[in-house]
Design brief:
Strand content: 15-25%
Helix content: 25-40%
Number of helices: 10
Number of domains: 2
Number of strands: 10
Distance between the termini: 25 Å
Order of helices and strands: EHHEHEHEHEEHHEHEHEHE
Length: about 280
């Protein structure tokens, strides 16, 4: 397993601190082969260093030094980046520049004003990322929040429609398996589904189960019928996984990069973590 690098995006909030200081979470990253972490924080374009009484860049650099020490103590090589601009664009830019294998961003859970929504940066990253994105869900509405799922990949719910996007997402088990114990393979038969009856779906699941078995992972099948996004979220509530693994549709002629409705709904409304795998940059 070759050494991987990850971009860990932080706004230096309490929620971000929780994510950075999660010993279990850092251990999970180590187990999947991450050796170098790039800590990134973005100073918004509308914040200027000359504003009276405000010096966000120095304050952020001090906080990043503290975070850097925590991550280095966990055994990672660490680089810090304090940049200015639009958060999701700068985070994506740094991920591309350093050749990151994944981006990790923390997100508060349920909002008191809206149905479970993720912050604008996490949402925009989900729509534009060209490398796998892990949305690490953090408790909301408490002064001292915890991560909602301590283990990032221990129990993974993998949603598949047997597309190339889903196959690409499944291939991440090549390294996720080192931090995974059990997998729930979920397929939703929608009214437009042409994957056949339940027996046909089970037959198509068999090669996936065999590969997971070769990797020493316990696997089970959950075949559902209905609206794909709603049923995937229902499966998450039923099986209580650490993370939902799903592939995104990729580029659209109408928008620079648009998630399929199913992926977008899952990222926005899942209770726990979501690991989103986009198409490769060249697609």
């Amino acid at each position: 397993m070759t050494g991987k690098s990850a971009v860990l995006a932080t706004d230096l909030s309490t929620a971000s601190e929780t994510m950075v200081e999660s010993e279990t979470g850092l251990n999970c990253l180590s187990r999947i082969g991450v050796e170098r972490i790039h800590l990134v924080t973005v100073v918004p374009s509308n914040v200027h260093s000359g504003m009276p009484g405000i010096d966000f860049e120095k304050r952020r650099k001090r906080a990043l030094r503290r975070y850097r020490s925590t991550i280095a103590d966990a055994g990672f090589a660490v680089e810090t980046h304090v940049v200015r601009g639009t958060p999701h664009r700068r985070i994506n830019g740094i991920a591309g520049t350093v050749g990151a294998d994944l981006i990790l961003v923390g997100s508060r859970g349920k909002s008191p004003l809206e149905n479970r929504v993720i912050g604008s940066t996490a949402r925009n990253l989900a729509r534009t990322t060209v490398v796998p994105l892990l949305v690490d869900r953090i408790e909301r509405g408490v002064d001292d929040p915890n991560t909602i799922r301590r283990h990032l990949f221990e129990r993974t719910l993998f949603a598949t429609d047997f597309s190339e996007n889903a196959e690409r997402a499944f291939e991440t088990f090549e390294y996720l398996r080192h931090a995974t114990r059990e997998v729930t393979l979920t397929h939703v038969r929608s009214p437009k589904d042409d994957t056949g009856d339940v027996a046909d779906v089970e037959s198509r699941m068999e090669p996936l189960i065999e590969r997971l078995d070769e990797w020493g992972l316990d696997a089970r099948i959950d075949i559902r019928r209905g609206d794909p996004a709603q049923e995937i979220l229902a499966a998450e509530r039923e099986h209580d996984p650490s993370t939902v693994l799903i592939g995104s549709r990729g580029r659209s002629r109408l928008r620079r990069l648009l998630l399929g409705n199913v992926s977008e709904d899952v990222v926005a409304n899942a209770t726990g973590n979501v690991f989103l795998v986009p198409p490769p940059r060249s697609v």
